[in-house]
From TrEMBL:
<dbReference type="Pfam" id="PF00440">
    <property type="entry name" value="TetR_N"/>
</dbReference>
<keyword id="KW-0804">Transcription</keyword>
<keyword id="KW-0678">Repressor</keyword>
<dbReference type="InterPro" id="IPR009057">
    <property type="entry name" value="Homeodomain-like_sf"/>
</dbReference>
<dbReference type="InterPro" id="IPR011075">
    <property type="entry name" value="TetR_C"/>
</dbReference>
<dbReference type="Pfam" id="PF16925">
    <property type="entry name" value="TetR_C_13"/>
</dbReference>
<dbReference type="InterPro" id="IPR023772">
    <property type="entry name" value="DNA-bd_HTH_TetR-type_CS"/>
</dbReference>
<feature type="domain" description="HTH tetR-type">
    <location>
        <begin position="9"/>
        <end position="69"/>
    </location>
</feature>
<keyword id="KW-0238">DNA-binding</keyword>
<dbReference type="InterPro" id="IPR036271">
    <property type="entry name" value="Tet_transcr_reg_TetR-rel_C_sf"/>
</dbReference>
<feature type="DNA-binding region" description="H-T-H motif">
    <location>
        <begin position="32"/>
        <end position="51"/>
    </location>
</feature>
<keyword id="KW-0805">Transcription regulation</keyword>
<dbReference type="InterPro" id="IPR001647">
    <property type="entry name" value="HTH_TetR"/>
</dbReference>
<protein>
    <submittedName>
        <fullName>TetR family transcriptional regulator</fullName>
    </submittedName>
</protein>
């Protein structure tokens, strides 16, 4: 039985959603194509009708996840508060793809790496624009520097907080990184 174009699009979306959750939760190598298809409610045999290979699935899943993140918070302080929350730290499957998969993506195909790099560039541009619009920076170069520093601190903090088996220290890493970003923003405004 032939599947309609609409159903193909729906199935593809289901596969990308399932892969995005599984890859972020368990990593690329720990997830099989069969597991992705099962999580999407489809049979393994149909996979190659949607993707050329698992590598293609990885690259397209990253693209899918980053596209979802494009509608986001424009207030950096609110974004940092949400990003550095315990809920985000604990939500591997639904959290930031950079924090969950960045180190693994370095060892993936050039296509997957390019998608990750493009996602990171867009995030830096969004945060730079938000910092410039909020008056947190005196120049575009300063806004970009602040965005890169803040984003790097946020991603690093989530990675470290997830690695720590001491809940108090894990929480402290999130809280202190958020405080550090707030302090940097206050200092930037005072120096304008």
């Amino acid at each position: 039985m032939r599947v309609s174009r609409e159903q193909v699009a729906i199935n593809r979306q289901k596969i990308l959603e399932a892969a995005s959750r599984l890859f972020r939760e368990r990593g690329y190598d720990a997830v099989t194509v069969a597991e992705v298809m099962s999580a999407a409610g489809l049979t393994h045999g149909g996979f190659y009708g949607y993707f050329k290979s698992k590598d293609d699935l990885i690259a397209q899943t990253l693209s899918h996840v980053f596209a979802q993140g494009e509608v986001g918070e424009t207030d950096v302080a609110r974004y940092a508060a949400r990003y550095l929350s315990r809920a985000h730290r604990d939500n591997l499957a639904g959290g930031c793809p950079t924090a969950a998969l960045g180190a693994e993506t370095v060892r993936q195909t050039p296509e997957a790496r390019a998608v990750m790099a493009a996602g990171l560039k867009k995030q830096i541009e969004r945060l730079s624009a938000a910092k410039a619009a909020s008056g947190d920076a005196s120049t575009a170069a300063h806004a970009r520097r602040a965005a890169i520093g803040s984003w790097s601190a946020m991603v690093g903090a989530v990675i470290l907080a997830r690695l720590i088996d001491d809940p108090a220290l894990s929480n402290e890493i999130l809280d202190e990184t958020h405080a550090w970003i707030d302090d940097r923003d206050r200092d930037s405004i005072q120096n304008i």
